[in-house]
Every structure is written in C-alpha cells, then in structure tokens.
Write a structure and sequence with these properties.
Keywords: ATP-binding, Kinase, Magnesium, Metal-binding, Nucleotide-binding, Phosphoprotein, Transferase
Largest sheet: 9 strands, mixed
CATH architecture of the largest domain: 2-Layer Sandwich
Number of helices: 18
Low-confidence stretches: 234-245, 251-256
Radius of gyration: 27 Å
Strand content: 15-25%
Enzyme class: transferase
CATH superfamily of the largest domain: Polyphosphate kinase middle domain
Number of domains: 3
Distance between the termini: 56 Å
Helix content: 25-40%
Protein name: Polyphosphate kinase
Mean pLDDT: 90
GO biological process, one term: polyphosphate biosynthetic process
Cofactor: Mg(2+)
Structural class: alpha/beta
CATH topology of the largest domain: polyphosphate kinase like
Length: 689
C-alpha cells in the first residue's frame, strides 16, 4: 500500500520482518542460526500484532477520525492486507522450518514428534513428563464452563478434542492445555547411537495425552495448538489514589486481558473444534484469524540449543578493547584528556559498567545522574548505581517505566533502587524518556568537573552482545552541562531549556535537523561540497522525509541505511532520484543512529537515540550529540562507509522487488565482518605505536 510519496508504515515494517525471514532461508547462514532467525521473525510478529495491528484496529473502529493518524491510508483495507501478507509469510516460514529440520538430519540432529518416539526413548519421556511437565500443566475442561477463562497473551495452548462414547452415542469433549513456560521448549532425549534427538514440549505432551486423561474412557483424542495475541496498550487512567507504579503494574497485568487482535491456529485442527473455541471465546471475524502450522510460539526458536554443534552456529567474536583506554586503569583519568568511542558488540560493553563502578568507588565523585530505558534481567548497571548510593553519592535515575514489554523488569529495579536510596524520576508527563545519557560530578581542585557518556542504545549487558551501538565517553564540559539541563527539564518540565551543543527532542530536533538539511541544500546551490549520510532504525516522519526529497530535487546526494521501517520512496525521478537507501540484516541487529552532514569540507557528525519517527521527534525526550573529536568523527564516517559498501547482506529499497539484495559489483563485502576487522586493525596500529 503506497501513495505517490510515502510507503505505509505498517507494511514497511512487515517488509523488514520479511528480511529477517530471508536470513532464516539463507543457505549461507549456519543452520541453528537460521532456526533462531525464525524465532526472531515469530517474536517480531507477536509484538507487531500487540502494538501496531491493535492500533490500526482501534483507528478502524474510530472511523474517518483515524485517517490523519495513518497518513490517509484506509484502516479497514490495511487490516485485510496485513492479514493476507502474514498468512502468506507464515506459510513460507513453515516451509523454511521443515527444510532446516531436514538439513539438520545430515548433521545427525533429529527433531522428532510424538509419532516417532522409539521404545527406548519412551522410558525417558514418560519419566520426564511425570517429574517435570505434569506438575506444571493447567488443563481446562471447556464443556463444563460457560465461558473460556481469558487465555494469556501469546501463550501457546493445545486444543484437545476427546471423543467419548456415552449412552450409545459419541460425545465431543473439548479441553485446553496451557504449554508451561517453566519447562524448556526443546527437550533433548538421551541417545546411545551418537545422534542428537530433540522433541518439542508440545509433542511430549501430545505423547502423554493418555497419561493426562487416563480417568476417561475415550474413543479417540487429538490435540492442535492455538494462540491468542492481545492489544498491548496500557491504560494509566483511573484511581487517583494509586501511585504511578501501582497504576502501571495494574495495567501490565490487565494487558493479559486486553482485546484479542490475532488468533493463530493449527490449520489441521478439526472445524468443529475451531468453531467451538471461537464461539466460546467470543472471537468474531473482525479479528485476525491466522491459520498456521502444528507449532506456534516459534519465538522460542531464538533459544534453540546449539547441542555442541559449533559448526552450526556463528563463530563467537571476542569483543575488543578500545585503543588507548585500558579497562584495568582509571577511565576517568583517560577521559579527562580525550573523548573515546565504544562500538558494541565489536568492542566490549564492559567500559560502560566500569565507568559506573569507578564512579561508585571514587571519593571525589559526588553525584551520578543517568537515564534508563531497558535494563538487563540481571543488571550490573543497576548494581553499580545502588553501590554508589550506599557509598554516599547522590544518585538520580530517570527510569522509563513504560518501555514496552520491559515494564515489569524496570519496575522491579525501580523499587529496588528506591529502597537503597537512589532518587528516581519517572520521566515527563506525556513524553517517554528514550535518551541514553549519564553525567557524574567530580570534585577536582575544589571545583566540580563533569564526566559522562551518551549512547545510541540501552545500558543493557545482554543486548550489547547482539545490538550494534555507539557510546561516546567525554569530559567536554559544554556537552555535559547540556545533559545536566536535560535532567533539570525532567524535574521542572514547564521550563524549556536552551542547549548550546545537544539537539534535544521534543523541542528542537525537528527544526535543527531541518536546518542541517537546508545547509546542505544551500551549500550545493553555492557549488560547495554537500551530502547527507544517515544510519537509523526507522524513517517514517513525513515532514523530514519531505525535507530529504527537497534536498534530492536540488541535487544533494543522500545515503540512507535503514534497518526497519522506511516510508521514503527513493530513486523516483523528480522527487528522490538522488536518494539511495539500503537495509542491512545480518548476525547482529543494526541499532545505532548516526547522522553525517558534509558541510562543505567540515563534516558535522552526530550520534543519537532518536530515529526519524514522529514519536521520537515530537513526543519523546531524545538526545542527539555532536562529535567534536576529529579521530572519532573520522571513525564514524569510516564505519558508515563500511556499511555502505555491503553487497552480501544489504537489501536495496530502490528496487521494485521487495527486499531484493543489492546488486553485487566487485568482490564480496559483508559489512559486519569487515567492521570487526576494521577494529582489529585499529587495535594493532595502536599497540605498534
């Protein structure tokens, strides 16, 4: 669904998820990694239906009033198109899964189902079921109740049909079994023949249906999987006597009972069982009904075990140190003299943790202020902040409790930090705090000196292993004083601050980015060097897209690397013929936001927490930071150039064919692998100096 100027946001996101599916289908990707990409594809779809599909559905129910939100696209038609695309891609993903499982057999790895269990395996599976699975099962006899209890969002269930002979006639008994999440989805079966055997928990339960229902005298029994996805919007209105955290926790719990937006079922399920469930659950045809395969919740494949088959997974890279910044010594002492850039996962995230640990112990450090969006489940960041508070530092944490799907984890840490004396700020009314910043105050020669860092990604040890992100460590007093003003805004947000260095949403980003584009237009028209190079996750703001179109029309060359949503249509004569756009999906998730403006011979380079989406520009607190250090500026321009040269994992937005791989000109060039090599060479040069 396209108009003349823009791609539809939701359909563009589906195209991104299709790029993930391409990785699952790519024979050059290690087999077990391909299974994990299938898991990512499935997990992405779950979140899409909870959030974006649910939003479009609400717009559809609102009628014409919602057209402005969708940029003029018809909501009802869009819902139908989404469903058609998802059904097609779900079927494709099942074919890919079957193909991968066939290929695993060539490596003596067998994923068996309940019909392939041998007598030797049966002994283990019966015992495993009785000891580990049976105690965790929740089984609901549907015929005996008036209404199905609310099925948990995105949990998988087996819909069981049991046919009993009663009074000389057959009676159908319908049952739901919740697949327990407390048991690993993939059960490895001990083997004596040197081969690896895996059975999915779903099939293990199917194999033991006779054990579960041994009190019944039944003629036949079958089980097919179903799953429901619910609207994930949070409701924070209501009881004024409740605290913000209490309201949020209640709303997260209520999400379990949100309106259904998708019902996925095994396409082999008996029609009478499906009809019974839909009627009992009061799901009508306006909801998205998706026929699927035997197994749902394929997101669990993200954690498919490697089974010791190292040749079937990507080689692990050893994160490198930052040249000139020894982690064993004092980071603050080094940062006082020079800015440093950390590029994860190529370089180790340990610098971020070490910075905070050093600040927590240093007697000269008086305060720490930090913004937190998503924390790891076990967070060394949070531990370091608590440690600092215990050592008498003034610790202030702006924690975004509405970081979608991480609310419960953030609330847990918020409560823990508050108990330990950390001062908490819960963002700004009506705005999510999405910026990634930290500032410390250190007393040096009876004066306060600032140190800090600004990042494109979350302060999360887990995602730092798979997300590519930049972090700038700096003692630039002007930049850090601006960050301090951002924290002032959190507490007194009716005052709009002025910043000398940072570009801050929601007050200045739109105008500042527009001014930077205008400068490139002006330079091009004056015969000076011009050009715009941008790397981000998503581009959907029509106003900034129009500015890029304007730059293209006068001849400014624009290069875009966009991982996800891209509503800009490149290479259209008279509108965007000077804009090239690619997407890279590979081993790591491309996550940094990097903005480079040629500015004649004096490039302006920025790292940012903000994509060019309307929510990031106008409805969130975001920070875009200029890079002043020439070496770091050069490094960022070079790493952008490495990504731009990719001809293995780059897809071309300019092609009429969705997700077509970039035309291969010259030798193979895979940017993520080349980026790691770039940092290895950089490290060698620093050692040899």
């Amino acid at each position: 669904m396209r108009n003349n100027k823009y791609d539809n946001r939701e359909l563009s996101w589906l195209k991104f998820n299709q790029r993930v599916l391409q990785e699952a289908a790519d024979p050059s990707v290690p087999l077990i990694e391909r299974l994990r990409f299938l898991g990512i594809f499935s997990n992405n779809l779950d979140e899409f239906f909870k959030v974006r599909y649910a939003t479009v559905k609400r717009i559809d129910l609102a009628g014409k009033a919602g057209k402005k939100v969708l940029g003029g696209f018809n909501a009802s038609r869009l819902l139908k198109e989404i469903t058609q695309i998802v059904i097609k891609k779900q079927a494709e993903s099942l074919d890919i899964l079957a193909s991968i499982q066939d290929q695993l057999k060539e490596h003596d790895i067998y994923v068996i189902d309940e019909n392939q269990v041998t007598s030797e395996q049966a002994i283990f599976l019966k015992e495993f079921f009785l000891q580990k699975v049976s105690p965790a099962l929740v089984t609901i006899m549907l015929n005996e109740i008036d209404k199905v209890p609310n099925l948990k969002d995105s949990k998988a269930y087996l819909a069981v049909k049991m046919v009993q002979l009663e009074k000389d006639r057959l009676q159908n008994q319908y049952i739901l079994i919740e697949i327990p999440s407390s048991v690993e989805r993939f059960v490895e079966i001990p083997s004596s023949d040197g081969k690896k055997y895996i059975i999915l928990l779903d099939d293990l339960i199917r194999y033991n249906l006779n054990v579960i229902f041994n009190i019944f005298d039944y003629d036949s029994i079958s089980a097919h999987m179903v799953k429901i996805t619910r609207d994930a919007q949070l409701d924070l209105e209501g009881d004024l006597s409740k605290s913000y955290i209490e309201k949020l926790m209640d709303s997260v719990k209520d999400r379990i009972e949100g309106d259904p937006v998708r019902f996925v079922y095994d396409k082999e399920i008996e029609q009478d069982t499906l009809d019974f469930l839909l009627k009992k659950m009061e799901i009508d045809t306006t909801d998205s009904l998706i026929p699927g395969g035997k197994y749902h919740n394929r997101r669990d494949y993200m954690n498919f075990p490697d089974l010791g088959a190292k040749h079937l997974v990507y080689d692990k890279i050893e994160p490198l140190p930052i040249p000139g910044l020894e982690i064993q010594g004092s980071l603050l002492e080094k940062i006082a003299k020079k800015d440093f850039l950390q590029h994860v996962p190529y370089q180790t995230f340990s610098y971020t943790v070490k910075f905070l640990r050093e600040a927590a112990l240093d007697p000269k450090v008086k305060s720490i202020k930090i913004t937190i969006y998503r924390l790891a489940t076990v967070s060394h960041i949070a531990s370091s902040l608590i440690n600092a508070a215990k050592n008498g530092k003034r610790v202030t944490v702006s924690i975004e409790l509405q970081a979608r799907f991480d609310e419960a984890n953030n609330i847990k840490y918020a409560e823990k930090m508050e108990r330990e004396g950390v001062k908490l700020i819960f963002g700004v009314t009506g705005l999510k705090v999405h910026c990634k910043t930290c500032i410390i105050e250190r007393l040096e020669n009876n004066k306060i000196k600032y140190y800090g860092f600004i990042s494109t990604g979350n302060f999360n040890e887990n995602t730092a292993k798979i997300y590519t992100d930049y972090t700038l460590f700096t003692a630039h007093q002007g930049i850090l004083k601006d960050i301090d003003k951002v924290f002032d805004f959190f507490e007194v947000n009716y005052k709009i601050k002025r910043y000398k260095h940072l570009i801050v949403s929601p007050h200045y980003s739109r105008s500042k980015f527009s001014d930077l584009i205008d400068q490139e237009i002006e330079n091009h028209e004056a015969g000076k060097k011009s050009g715009i190079s941008i790397k981000m996750n998503s581009l959907s703001d029509y106003g900034l897209i129009d500015k890029l179109y304007e730059a293209s029309r006068v001849g400014v060359k624009v290069k875009l690397i966009i991982r996800g949503i891209n509503c800009l249509i490149p290479q259209v004569k008279g509108m965007s013929e000077n804009i090239e756009a690619i997407s890279i999906v590979d081993k790591f998730l491309e996550h940094p936001r990097l903005y480079i403006f040629q500015n004649d011979d004096h490039p302006k380079v920025f790292i940012s927490s903000a994509d060019w989406m309307t929510r990031n520009i106008d409805h969130r607190v975001e920070v875009t930071c200029p890079i002043y250090d020439d070496d770091i500026k050069h490094e960022l321009i070079e790493t952008f150039g490495i990504c731009w040269k990719d001809n293995i994992k780059a897809r071309d937005f300019s092609s009429k064919e969705d997700n077509a791989y970039r035309e291969k000109l010259g030798p193979d060039f895979r940017s993520q692998f080349e980026t790691y090599t770039y940092y290895q060479e950089k490290l060698k040069k620093s050692v040899n100096k």
